[in-house]
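Example (one chain per record):
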Amino acid sequence: MSEIDVFVIGGGPVGMVLSAELARHGVRVRVADRRAEPVHHSHASILHARTQEVFDAMGIAGRWWPYAHPFARATIYAFGTVVGALELAGADSPFSVPLDVGQNVTEAILVKRLRELGVTVERPVEATSVREAGDAVEIDLRRADGAIETVRAGWLVGCEGSHSIVREHCGIPFEGKRYAAREFVQTDARVRWSYTAGVGHLFIERDRFLGCFPMDGSGLFRVLCARPDRNPDDRSDPTLEEMQAIVREIADPDAVLSEPLWLNRFRTQARRAPTYRAGRMFLAGDAGHVHVPVAGQGMNTGIQDAFNLAWKLAAVVHGRAPDALLDTYSAERTPVAAGLLRGTDAGFNTLSRPNAALRFALEHLAPLALDARAVQTTLRNLVEEIAIGYRASALSEQHDRGSLRAGDRVPDALLVDVAAGVNCTAFDAMRGEGWTLFAIVDDDASLDAASIAALQEIAGAFTDLRCRAVAVDPRRVAAGIDVLADRDRTLHDRWDVHRPTAILVRPDRYLGFRGPLDDLAALRAYLARWAAAPAATAAA
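Predicted structure:
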């Protein structure tokens, strides 16, 4: 039996992101998938802002740009009338517009990234059984030639989809429902019609909806229709002629579809697990939650699961943090899935089966709402997943005022690296595998020698957490610590800082601790709680 730190079942985007991040953090990881090859079609075909931020933290965000199309807006039509448009561009992120790019491209990029880190997705390899064995997990693997291997790992993560062997072994329920009497048919194809290429179009009818989402700027669309399921036993792919007939009936009687890249028929469900952890085993992605495909949230949410879990699992594997850190994974991510299922279910019912009240709202109230900037911002932040936060988490600790609170995603800001004399960003300061302690001062104060020494001592005492301290000073240059100048107060304003403040950012770019800079006792106690073996001076 082989000995490794973490075994990952499932080599899709979620499993590969998790494995790549574990490897980046120095964890010995293996990942296996029962499929012989990565997917060949587009499948999950959108990358939202928060997912692009994850790829940026991984150092690979730019690898998608040559293949992706920016999905800036979607016009909504209800019962033959233009309702308005959802403006997807403009998210509060360096990645301000979602990207349409096929899952086949995403998987190819992640395969390459894993190889750079010395990890290969083992295919086709099926996990046939799993079991806890003392301080480890044993996984039985069956290869294509019938050979059986038993792997012994410290931890196991199931990223293998809705039929998760890990979830079934742990006896974790998968609660929810199937969408009976509804089917989805779709194609990726060229569309010649009277609607604009390069942007999205969503058509709502009495008992169905049609979405046409741009895959490029010249007429390639993902065409997706949800409609009554007239033949539940039909598992065949739709024909191009069938898809063309749908588009002609709902949108444009002269539409012509051609060059299909993929045709697919499927039914769907909404289910979730109430917990993502059982001892040494975890769930991520579709193993923990599945939902109706509204707003392209599934793969993106799974990638957020993986990014949340990876740094925590690495810290525990390396003995840098207590086991309790792993409990925050499920505590933070299961409420996200619960909210996702509620939102997608409501959206699906609105789109596919609007009753009289919903029809009135779509025709008369939706145009007014979509004209409001606040509504557009709220919808965009939800869809782009940058509104997700963990304020209720045990990892979130707040000791002063400010609209940016512990548990919130930290927004980016443009700064100047004083030592280098070049522009940089807050995200640049957070790069690496550790925590970042921002000592933020204001116009009326700067860091004195005692404060700098205290910050350096704190960072040094908690080397297990790889805590790095930097100063953000709007006008002065502090000596003895890395300084980011904020003369135009961009970060101060965006982070709502109006007094000397200590802000500790987690490795996944969420705010962990916020408190006054002139009283660091609470910060020391916070770090001591989440370090496995803090130095004696840290607890003083």
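Caption: Residues 534-540 have pLDDT under 50 and may be disordered.
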